[in-house]
Design goal:
Blueprint: H1 2-7, H2 9-57, H3 60-68, H4 70-73, E1 83-85, H5 100-107, E2 111-117, H6 122-134, E3 140-146, H7 154-159, E4 167-171, E5 183-188, H8 193-203
Parallel strand pairs: 2-3
Antiparallel strand pairs: 1-5, 2-4, 4-5
Helix pairs in contact: 6-8
């Protein structure tokens, strides 16, 4: 066979043709195999991309819920009234949150002055000294309590919405109220002797309350 390949040109051409066909077949087979792998990987990546898409959209409702709850955090508190009634006439009896000496002073038509202070406060000590000076009057019943013990007078403090100290609460005498219903005012911060005395005079005022702010 080797001698025929070496000496016969026809056999040599046939052998080269067979070799060429074999090489071509191998090349075609390898290319078709690579093409099938490429299409498989492309399909896999497309399916993974499709699976990821719903995940990003599923987070949108939670973001909307958070935004909707934001106004509650910025809501402003309602302002407190500087003066209001303390309790009804029938409820103004001694008990928890209302000491008996306060009730007795009110029944005796005295001006009840309740001063709520903070211990070692500069303004508080000054207001306390002024209140003690004015409270020496026979028409005034002065009660001073520390902020930590305000629960002893909770029915008075809650009636005027006390929210800071020093707080000066003044109750009108019983005989100057409508139907004996307790009425009180509250003021905050530093007040001198004259200012405290004026608050007591206001509580003792017997004239009309519908006066205009301008001279007639």
């Amino acid at each position: 066979m080797r001698k025929a390949l070496n000496d016969n040109p026809v056999v040599q051409i046939g052998a080269l043709a067979a070799l060429a066909l074999l090489v071509g077949f191998l090349l075609i087979t390898r290319m078709s195999h690579k093409g099938s792998e490429g299409s498989t990987s492309t399909t896999a990546s497309d399916s993974s991309a499709t699976a990821v898409a719903p995940t990003s959209s599923s987070t949108e409702p939670s973001a909307t819920a958070t935004t909707g709850s934001a106004p509650d955090a910025t809501a402003a508190p309602a302002p407190t009234s500087p003066s209001s009634g303390v309790a009804s006439a029938g409820d103004f009896v001694a008990g928890p949150g209302l000491p008996a000496p306060v009730v007795q002073a009110y029944k005796h038509n005295e001006v009840v002055v309740l001063l709520v202070v903070r211990r070692n406060g500069i303004d508080d000590e000054a207001v306390k000294a002024g209140a003690e000076t004015v409270g020496s009057s026979s028409k005034v019943a002065l009660f001073v309590t520390n902020a930590g013990h305000i629960a002893r007078y909770s029915r008075i403090a809650a009636g005027v919405n006390v929210d800071r100290v020093p707080a000066l609460i003044v109750l009108r005498p019983r005989n100057l109220t409508d139907g004996g219903v307790p009425q009180a005012t509250v003021s905050y911060g530093f007040r001198g002797v004259d200012s405290i005395a004026q608050a007591i005079r206001d509580a003792l005022y017997k004239g009309p309350t519908d006066l205009p702010y301008y001279p007639k």
